[in-house]
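Many introductory courses stop at the sequence. We go one step further.
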Amino acid sequence: MTSRLKKQSIYKIILSLLLSITILGCHPRKHQKEKQLFRYNEAAGLVNLDPAFARDQSHTWVCNQLYDGLVQLNDSLKVLPAIAHSWEISPDGLDYTFHLRKDVLFHEDPVFENKTRNVTARDVAYSLKRLLDPETASPGEWVLSKVQRADGVPVINALDDSTLIIRLEQPFPPFLSILSMPYCSVIPKEAVDYYGKEFRVHPVGTGPFQMQNWVENIKLVLRRNPHYFEKSGDTSLPLLDGIAISFLIDKMTAFMEFAKGNFDFMSGIDPSYKDELLNKTGELKLKYRDRFSLLSQPFLNTEYLAILVDTSLASVRNSPLAIKKVRQAINYGFDRQKMLRYLRNNIGLAGTKGMVPNGMQAFNPKARYGYDFQPEKARQLLGEAGFSSGNPIPLITLVTTPDYLDIIKFVQSQLQEIGFTIAVEVSPPGSVREMKAQGKIPFFRASWIADYPDEENYLSLFYSKNFAPQGPNYTHFSLPEYDSVYQLAMSESNPNQRTAFYRQLDSLIMEEAPVAILYYDESVRVVQKNVVGITTNPMNMLNLKRVSKTRY
């Protein structure tokens, strides 16, 4: 006990010291009366600040503050210049030529003798090729899989200090959006060589903030980069002096700290406090409205039930789920509106259309495809599939992770009212990931969050060449007509025509019903009233370079 108390005291001293160093170490600016520190909690924790390993939200949020890529996305998901001020795409859609700014500097760091240097096209080429290097073992290697190789070497070449060319194997319209991902951030080779494996805790980039201190699982502190190249009018960015990130695992505890004013914002509404914070219509309760702001908009995340449809597998061949009318009955058999109202305080949009979520161009709220709650139609389809009270449908097992058990129990209850017998199996997330990759779960809850803002994210899940485990087609859906239209969409450069192809693909998915959409998610942020400039976006990105704080 004594040892534990000593450790806790040491941690508290370290945290106080870190915050002091951050505030005192920030570079002063004219007319600034007090230092501005933005504070938030990251329950998921952090293990690696190397952008080549920015595979989830907790890491991408921090990497967005530390690094830049060739391009970036605004809140409308439009591709904008970043390190590259302009670019051209060849008429055949294969060659991308980027022209770099000449005023972008890396962070001051010991690798540069506590100075800095300009970014060149060679740095960009190195960073992207490193992502593809098997020795890096980056989980983001796939984002550059469309890049052409010559004698095994990716065709990513610096023509001079400010010109870079990338050649693709075949046209791929989402490629510019992919380059906005943190995986594609620009880093200096000498920093990777200097720090080796410890680059994960000594990040060196070009972003609006740079590393100050990190006590893993306790506190991460970033400070303002005084050499950042972007401006807001005549004002240098970022506006904040620093960022302090805590790692409280318990989300209710984090909410209580936010309520005390110790954090500046929260992302998402956890079930542990949603009824304390929100009313049933999804609005802030009256007692919080003068203290917090609630920001929300569509989030590119589709929550759904996935159904394995590969009849070459014995587990599918003899299952009622192999029958299309049974899958359609599932889609008609539960009330999504009621589910959202009672279990999610109306956060999100009922999944009555296609796989493509609300917030994307191809999402069509007036589409004739999709499913709403029609229990009599569901019973009729079960009858047409050969099932009745005299010949009941066999038991079907639905697998979920613990976090979604309330939603799955709701679906179970409603489906059983129309004639299904559903058993719910709860498994840890890791087990579900492994089993669905191996095709061992016929029926499971899933979600798909967009990695980049193009509908191809979602529609590639049903392309027959993408069967899991090598690809993301976890349902083993295969339809020649679908594959043909998918290939047309991937070679189409006209955005309007590509959207038409995407909607055609979505209608085919809904007709065959390898999925039952639960809901399209919503990005929700709760922010202290004195925070200015924080926004929401459909990718739930966190960009803090234009954020500031005022006094209450």
